[in-house]
Predict the 3D structure of the following.
Amino acid sequence: MKKMMLIVLAAAVILMGLVLNHTIAKKDKAIYVAVNGDDQSAGTKSKPFRTLKKAASEAEAGTTVYIREGTYNEKLVVRYSGTKRKPIIFKAYKKEKAILSGKNMKDGEGDTSLITINNKNYLTISGLMIQDLTTDLSDETVMGIYVTGSSSHITLDHNHVHRIKTLAGDGNGHGIAIYGTGKMKDMNILNNTVEELKLGSSESIVLNGNIDGFMVENNLVRRNDNIGIDLIGYEGTSNDKNADFVRNGVVKNNRVYEISSFGNPAYGEEYSAAGIYVDGGKNITIEKNTVYQSDIGIEATSEHPKKYAENINLTNNIIYGNFFTGISIGGYDEKRGGTKNSLISQNIMYRNDTKGIDGGQLLLQHNIRNNVIEKNILTAGPSRIFIANYFSTNKENELMKNVFHKEKGKNAIWVWKEEEYTSFLNFKKASKSDRKSSYLNPEYQDPNQADFRLRTDSPAKTIVD
């Protein structure tokens, strides 16, 4: 009997091992694509497929598609979803230069994208160069990567998206576009470079519609002619009107610069593009980003009447040398929505408003309420305006422990509820700033080299820490 039990046990162990090996093998399935491949081959490393279309048709849950070096003049349309344990990954093989190019694609109406993910889950796109998609048509929207439907658990990582362009005067284009027509969650845009785009009325990176849970982190966004990173609500994107807004996410450690609508045919000579923009989002943290040489550093509001950017935390960002203003909240006119229940804290706003448009360092616009503005350090730009508040619809906002950079021989201007003040004490009284708000030299390490660390003996340290 004992011998029989041992035999049965041994058989069970062997069977378990076979099942485990089969599971691992299936999970680790690999497909290879190469420009010298053949779609009639096995899709292995030594016998790769030729096209992304063929690879996508074979890439079921648990597959990694390795794309070898070369230029692929075709679109990648993802066919299948992965699962939590068996995601699908499309990636460049090792550090090879795998390029998806739209250079030879013809114009067409509607949406045209080099990578499309529609109603798919548990997918990663990694390490690809996505470039050279252009249109002359106003009714065609060109995109590098397009994620739509009810897609969830998507990661876009270490991709380089560039030269996506609309040349139509009233056209649209995106580098990376995520449109939640159905409910989306766990959307991750990480470590990408998005540059040299002509966008018309659209954005470099955009999340729009019913998106609940996201991360936009460590991206480089630069040299584009409209908004850098945009989080949008209330545009009618979602099938569910009650959930048509981006929420519960983080925008962190991104570097954004040279974002300007000036010269964009859709805007003419307006400096209106934000490096990072919340347009009707909710419960979003924007922290540790660096934004410079753009029209607006960071903006949070809603363009839609009676709608808000709500519970937005703007913390520990460095915003300098922007053309119009550093941080802006509230609607740009009284037909817009506003900003409420939000926090602006521990940001550096240094010499923005470089074009002298009178946006100052902090622009407080229409319909802002119940916001806390605290522990920020502001250095005036050429206009000498620290805070610009040209509306009287500013209600129940708190200003606490902010530091305004006092510079010898230079004047200072604060605008509060349409009244201009050149005296800090008068401004404090009008704005009801707390007694710890200060007008002094914060003593940066080397602001000319964008080193905004405070010196050891900085008098601002005890105020803003």
About this structure: Residues 1-11, 18-26 have pLDDT under 50 and may be disordered. The chain is about 10% helix and 45% strand. Residues 2-27 form the longest helix (26 residues).
